[in-house]
Amino acid sequence: MRDNKVIAPHLLDWYDRHARVLPWRVPPGGAKADPYRVWLSEIMLQQTTVAAVKDYFLRFTALWPDVGSLAAAPDQQVMAEWAGLGYYARARNLLACARMVAAAGGFPKDRNGLQALPGIGPYTSAAIAAIAYDQPETVVDGNVERVVARLHAVETPLPAAKPELVALAERLTPDTRPGDYAQAMMDLGATICTPRSPACGICPLIDDCDARVMGIAAELPRKTPKAAKPDRIGIAWVARRGDSILLEERPAKGLLGGTLAFPSAGWDGRDMPPPGSADWQEIGHVRHVFTHFNLSLMVVMGDLQDGPDRGHLVRLRDLDRNALPGLMRKVWDMARAEIAA
DNA sequence: CATCCGTGGAT
DNA sequence: TATCCAAGGAT
């Protein structure tokens, strides 16, 4: 029979020996974590893998070592540095949040205050409060949902099971070392209690897990099936004039909001004409997968005869591929190959 | 509560 | 190739 009181001690003992070393992390029992670095890493890590975040985190903290310097950064530079990481609303909220925090003289020191800031929801507010301020808030991300669903053998499928999992997780949260405990739960989920083939044989909670006894650990948490992704098509214009190429900033809201992009239409709910007159030549198609649809984008290229009526011309040698979101990098790579040919 | 919002890696 | 999914939040 599981004893809730021993779970945190078991987990913390394991964490003291096996904590992952990460750029934004303070070692177990170590010095106090910097709220700015905790916040920045947590925003980047939302629905994003540790491997993908590492370089972005190092780059951001090198450019902007504190919230004041980030708050003073130009919007376009932050968007360009975020390019490729996805979920661009995070970048816009990041900057809005940094400016509010800088104006207030620092981060709020409790969960409710944190959650009032843009881009900070139930998970992130609890994570910052626990990790940076050592408050016994319960952090519930996808890892914790999975660990708790297995410990308690919760068979209700997600997302309906979420409230129940949160309540169960709250009962496990210790009053001491809540920040280490939160990170330990996530490390356990990421390295031992993994989605497909959990390594129960080396799990520090093997004697505390109901699903393990029932032999259903790998099946939990159950999830309600997702709808199939529809296919969408569209067109992107690679408009050239001399040694320059046309780019535009996308509208702040919606798909790839606020990012630098080639003019395009037909795939994002906006019906736009070509940005100018040209003898457009089809050079190929790029495929891209978004969260809720598959995209096949026809790429056409041409020399502008008039216009453009929007966007701005950028010299090829000034075009930074890394400042483009992933989809537009594919468009650019195709166009660059065509130009070279 | 459902939908929208990226990207890349693992299986 | 198809599917899942990764430290979620806003609307």
UniProtKB/TrEMBL annotation:
Per the UniProt entry, the Enzyme Commission number(s) are 3.2.2.31
The lineage's top-level taxon is Bacteria
Cofactor, how bound (note)? Binds 1 [4Fe-4S] cluster.
Q: What does this protein do?
A: Adenine glycosylase active on G-A mispairs. MutY also corrects error-prone DNA synthesis past GO lesions which are due to the oxidatively damaged form of guanine: 7,8-dihydro-8-oxoguanine (8-oxo-dGTP).
Q: What is the lineage of its organism?
A: Bacteria, Pseudomonadati, Pseudomonadota, Alphaproteobacteria, Rhodobacterales
PANTHER family listed in its UniProt record? ADENINE DNA GLYCOSYLASE (PTHR42944:SF1)
Keyword Transcription annotated: no
A single Gene Ontology MF term assigned here is: 8-oxo-7,8-dihydroguanine DNA N-glycosylase activity
* Protein name in the entry: Adenine DNA glycosylase
Q: Where is the HhH-GPD domain?
A: 44-191
Q: What class of enzyme is it?
A: hydrolase
InterPro entries referenced in this protein's UniProt entry, alphabetically: DNA_glycosylase, Endonuclease3_FeS-loop_motif, Endouclease-III_FeS-bd_BS, HhH-GPD_domain, HhH_base_excis_C, MIG/MutY, MutY_C, NUDIX_hydrolase-like_dom_sf
Q: Which SUPFAM superfamilies match?
A: DNA-glycosylase, Nudix
